[in-house]
Amino acid sequence: MNHKIIESSLALFLARGFHKVNTDEIAQAAGISKRTLYRYFPSKDELVTATLEHFKMQVRTKFILVLSQKELPPLHRFRQILTQVAQELSKVSPSLMVDLQREREDIFAQMVEFRTANIRSLIGLLKEAQERKEINSDLDVPFAIDMLLASINTLLIPEYLISHNYSFDFGLEKITQIFLDGIIIRENEHSSKRRKK
């Protein structure tokens, strides 16, 4: 029952934010009475917290799944992970992002911290790609990841996305593309380096 309530709440919160969703709608979506809802979650705040924690775990599970596919090249996994994250976070409506930032700063901060920790954990993939000579050997990988994070944390915020009419997944895809274009060694660069030797 707990899982059913959280899944029903998640669908509503992702689409409309939590401010515009009331407990009557949540109970109806879960196919239960309000009394039953309050038995599991005495307050809406508790339900919001539990639901977004569940969402974070969904994202993390997919993240770990791709990370563990050692047979795939490191840059492929790097791009695939960011694509997966973008696909999951694209489900988050601007309304929910605004609600979190304005009314649940604690959860908004946790979401940013969660995103930061996950992206920092990709340092190993870039170092592996560096060893395979897929990215520039002189690249400072931790700094590059911090630069990627700075772009994400500056641009992928409600105010910027809403004012430019960008979705989260579009923004993350563009940031990832520009980032990888700057660090990947192209075939002509390999040839040039061989000639210099």
From TrEMBL:
A single Pfam family it belongs to is TetR_N
Write the record's keywords in alphabetical order, separated by commas. DNA-binding, Transcription, Transcription regulation
Q: Tell me the InterPro entries matching this sequence.
A: Homeodomain-like_sf, HTH-type_TetR-like_transc_reg, HTH_TetR, Tet_transcr_reg_TetR-rel_C_sf
A molecular function (GO) term: DNA-binding transcription factor activity
Q: Which residues bind DNA?
A: 22-41
- Provide the HTH tetR-type domain boundaries: 1-59
**UniProt KW Transcription keyword:** yes
For the keyword Zinc-finger, the answer is no
- The name of this protein is Transcriptional regulator, TetR family
Which source organism does the UniProt entry give? Leptospira broomii serovar Hurstbridge str. 5399
